[in-house]
Amino acid sequence: MFEIISVGDYYQTVDSDQGLVNLKSEVADVCRERFRRIDRFTQLALIGSGRCVQSTHGVEGIELDSQTGLYIGSRFASCGNTVKVHEQMISAGVVPKPASFINTLSNSAGYFVARNLELVGRNLFVSRGDASIVAALQLAAMDIATGTVSQALVGAVDEAVLPLSHHRFRLGLKPETVMGEGSHWLLVAPENSANSLATVTEMETLRDEAALAGWLDGLDASREYQVSLSPWTKQQMASTCLKSREMLTDFDPGLAAYPGYATGAMIRYLKTGAERPLIVIAADIDSRFHVVMVQPKPRSA
Amino acid sequence: MTHVNAPVKITASGIVSALGQGKRANLDALLGDATAGPDRLSLSHFEEPVDVPYHGVAGAPELAEDRLHWLVDQAMEELLAEHPLSPDQRAGIPVFIGSSCWGIGIAEERYREQYRDNPETAIPLPLDGFGQISRHLQQQYGFHGADFALNTACTATANAILNAAAAINMGMHDHALVVGLEARNDTTLAGFHGMQLLAEDGMRPFDRRRDGLVLGEGCGAILLSRCPSDAPGTLLWGGASNCDTYSISASNPDGSTIAAVMGAAMARSGITPSDIQAIKAHGTATPLNDDGEAAGMRRSFSNIPPFFSMKAALGHTLGSCGVLETLLMAALLSEGQLPASVGFEEADPDLGVVPMQAPLATGPGYYLLNFFGFGGNNASLILRYQN
Fold it and tell me: By CB distance 3.0 to 4.6 Å, which of B35, B72, B114, B130 could disulfide with B313?
């Protein structure tokens, strides 16, 4: 389908006693200018995308063309800002301030990322629960396949919002689940492009767990695969679906629970140097499963 | 030059808007002698009086979740009556959804109820708003395929249409469904009120006295299908979108990025400016939008084709305007007539462009549709009508 040619991200496990880490210095490290009145969601998007692009510096053959498509996937987008707007609106009857209102629009972060990286082409925000990265990658694949863009910068950005008890409720997670937040980015290019770290070979939306089982049955049983499921996806899946298949082994990326987990797992898997395909499975709130298969390039290649 | 990708046909569509339920009611209103002005809406939950003009949909349920479902149902039932789809077809078709509100009205309502009952335990934003429309399309109609909840402000469904066409062009699907929804909610109405973008006396796109927009409510649905390039009807021939980083709330007023997106749409469609028969402008009647769009048209066309805006009649339906205005444009082309630009009376010499002041008889040919949004998102679509 397409190649992953660069990755970069930001991640933190959230300690509710310590609060959320201040991101200003990380933002400054990747930004050409100082952006005012940006919210945490935009800060996260700037950091992750900036690091992904920084990691291409000095790599021969990778250039971030201004027409590179930009695709952000997120379950709640600017959640913290929208929560504040609703608290002020509903508890105090306050009309949203213009900057806060504009930041409730999900594509504000895309605007600032484009401005920071001097991108002027396609710029999309898409959501599909914990499978938002799958939707973003599918959109990028369409635009690459139809020649609309020559490469795509694709990110999964999901912020944590305090109090965590509220945020766990929002995400459908069990009480006391350890929470994280992250901004994970992939620079992708057409199949067989140079500098490939891995090839995304399959992306599927499966109607229910039976359809997922059918898809798994179609895998080459003579090969071995690693599988990554977020804590929330594990909550949605019967235990037998994966355990009955011996060619599948679990990959634990060491991440806490948050909607961007799938992309964080992909990036961490690529950094292990493993050569087996990774299958990332993300459930959505409607009992469907969304699957991405990533085949790392052998390091000697 | 030939178009980059194969055209796709607008096979079926459905709409509910402030102008009425169904395409016929909307066309009759647009082509009639006069369209109704906006209603007034008083938002009762604010410490200051918030009284706004609004093009709301008559007859819609009051509760937010019921309202969202009802609006979607009006559009989907018209579409499916025009082109029935089997359960197997529905289960696999990709669904591209654009909106600016999603389930925000439902979230407001639930938080308000919880807060009234117990402020200490109330949870703001208690649900995943982006999933609400897709969930209804799955549960009510069986559309279980890959769904894309696109939010690029007022270009959301224009971008949805572009990606729906791309999904068909990739060869994996014969059809793609595009749905756009804008449902009444306090966040949007109060947000635009706070930004002082609302016009108290109705919209006047491209008029010297233009002073802002009026928000509108509605839902539209389009079924796009693979087709031969000589298929009769209205075909999406091509399009483009880009990002203007001049300002988060307005396109560059010099028109350069708007000219660029129109130029890219025409280039990808294999046509030149002289091929365009008429333009459906974005035309929000805000000073900045109309300045930028007029400048873009002046840059792109040595002779600017006839152009008009629908928003003074429909209201600005934000993320759903791409699908609402595209399906109405397709229906108008089938009627052989485009309406005068509603709300326009007095030319603005500073703009250097004047919209249509009378209906325009149309025939086969290419038509350009513009959509611009917050976040610097611009999109242009090219329709070709042929019989």
Answer: B35
